[in-house]
Amino acid sequence: MFRRALSRALPLLSNGLLREGIGPRCGPASFRFSLTSSSSSGTPDPSILPEEESREDPESRKPAISISIDRSGLHNPPEHLHEPHTDSELVKHLKSIIKFRGGPISVAEYMEEVLTNPHSGFYINRDVFGAGGDFITSPDVSQMFGEMVGVWAMCLWEQMGQPGNVNLVELGPGRGTLMVDLLRGSSKFSNFKKALNIHMVECSPALQKVQYDALKCMDEATNDDSSSKKTISMVSGSSIAWHSTLEQVPSGLPTIIIAHEFYDALPVHQFQKASRGWCEKMIDVSEDSSKFRFVLSPHPTTASLLYLTKRCKWASREEVTNLEHIEVCPKAMELTHQIAERISSDGGGALIIDYGKDGLISDSLQAIRQHKFVDILDDPGSADLSAHVDFASIRHCAEEASDGVSVHGPITQSQFLGSLGINFRVEALLQNCTEEQAESLRTGYWRLVGDGEAPFWDGPNDLTPIGMGTRYLAMSIVNKKQGIPIPFE
User: Fold this and answer.
1) How far apart are CA 291 and CA 284, in angstroms?
2) Spatial CA neighbour of 413 closest among 197, 191, 141
3) CA-to-CA distance for 481 and 476, rounded, in angstroms?
């Protein structure tokens, strides 16, 4: 099955042609994953205060009675005027949550507000991807990444029995680059192309517009009713729709789900080992309300009682004992549960590619602004926040959610792409390109499958290609009836 599927797919990938306008696809050699072992949040032991030691008496926080006074006739000398407030709207919002709640918020709540606040979240109102954005992802590095994911999707579709209608869902599609490359690369497979109903799960209106343009979409009237329209991608002729959550994607059809660098942006709770046991790490404002700081919750929190306890049950005692910090992502658990249930009932499979490890995650939360690591509490909303993905937790959640699915992997991105034929693909592309394009292809290839700095690089040191081949992992969740998916055999 594996060799037959690949032998059919690879020769037909756009006849070895380069994507239109190919050239150097990325700027500095910095990616969304951390290139160092240290966390941007730092080691919190000396700086994190127990919450009860860092807050004033609760009685002093009771709001005073407010009386309206007309001060229009009073003299107000210039030296008594207040300085203008320089806090951003998001900072004001976060401080108001802490103030009116009368206590700190969790790291997860802070992360969710910073990334997806409807008015000023990092992802909501701008394009943050690519060389001109804050970080670079694999589809931005080379067209070959999306093409190989397309090969995986087609092979899974064949294992499913080549259904005439299938939902192709991408979670967090970024600029739409991966989906464009997937559809363009598989354009010769007419039956696969005709079967697709594309669904993009994207919460950002700004990125939805970028994806709409990238996929060359057009709106068409349906059933002679001008008020009812459907959207068609002219890249493949497939219908395409946008949703804020996976739950909004219609069920009932076999479903192929792509989650590339999606799990890492889901909010995490952080816990730190203290003298009184595991305490949740929280975010508070300083005594003068000028900045944010970390504190430790004085009492067990809902997250520590439910999610930390659950996650530690899936780990060995030795694994837990050796850590001083643990990150847990309840949203990842919930999402995996939804994916497993849908695949179990409707058929299909999911591909998850992200940076992380197959085990407990320690203190990995990091902030990236313009391709550089910054403090996660510095100017919230101006930098991307992400954390390493706990693939072991994904596996346990999927298996717990349904007996009808099987979980395969994780394997390294290098193994995943290599087994799908990226070596043959780069050779075919190199036969039909200029020297400049060839250099871009070699650089992109190394970044996708290599490990560490590229040995062939002759350019500036600060642009040396850094391989993601072993830092990124791939995992698949599929309906048991379909067997083991390629290339996890």
Assistant:
1) 9
2) 141
3) 14
Rounded to the nearest 10°, the torsion over CA 428, 471, 263, 114 is -110
pLDDT tens column, 438-447:
999 999 999 9
Write out pLDDT tens, residues 458-467.
888 888 889 9
SS (H, E, C) the chain: CHHHHHHHHHHHCHHHCCCCCCCCCCCCCCCCCCCCCCCCCCCCCCCCEEHHHCCCCHHHHCCCCCCCCCCCCCCCCHHHCCCCCCCCHHHHHHHHHHHHHCCCEEHHHHHHHHHHCCCCCCCCCCCCECCCCCECCHHHHCHHHHHHHHHHHHHHHHHCCCCCCEEEEEECCCCCHHHHHHHHHCCCCHHHHHHEEEEEECCCHHHHHHHHHHCCEEEEEECCEEEEEEEEECCCCEEEEEECCHHHCCCCCCEEEEEECCHHHCCCEEEEEECCEEEEEEEEECCCCCCEEEEECCCCCHHHHHHHHHHHHCCCHHHHHCCCEEEECHHHHHHHHHHHHHHHHHCEEEEEEEEEECCCECCCCEEEECCEEECCCCCCCCCEEECCEEHHHHHHHHHHHCCCEEEEEEEEHHHHHHHHCHHHHHHHHHCCCCHHHHHHHHHHHHHHHCEEECCCCCCCHHHCCEEECCCEEEEEEEEHHHCCCCCCC
Q: Is residue 29's pLDDT more than 80? A: no
Q: Which residues contact 266 (CB under 8 A, 6 or more apart)?
A: 329, 331, 332, 335
pLDDT per position as a tens digit, 200-249 = 999 888 899 999 999 999 998 776 665 678 999 999 999 999 999 999 99
* Dihedral sign for Cα atoms in the order 155, 161, 164, 165: negative
Is the Cβ–Cβ distance between 299 and 393 less than 8 Å? no
CA separation for the pair 327, 108 (Å, rounded): 10
Contact indicator for 254, 166 with CB cutoff of 8 Å: yes
- The answer on pLDDT for 31 being more than 70 is no
Mean pLDDT of the chain: 85
